[in-house]
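WARN retry 2 of 3 for item q-0093 after timeout on previous attempt; input resubmitted unchanged.
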Amino acid sequence: MSLHELDARRLLCPMPVIRTQNKASTLAAGDQLVVTCTDPGALSDIPAWCRITGHKIISSTQQGNEIIITLEIGET
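OK item q-0093 returned
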């Protein structure tokens, strides 16, 4: 398992999900991806994308105007 980070701050919907999808496609099953973004829509968009694609949300927190979502890459 490897830990990766994605900075999606200052991007508006749908770009945080698209960037997350692009990064996830380069990772192996079991890797974790920490996505930092500022678009409040990402709080629902990224978990919905994970449900569709088989990835797992590990945690989702908000610190000020930043949203930090950690997900585990599933089998594809």
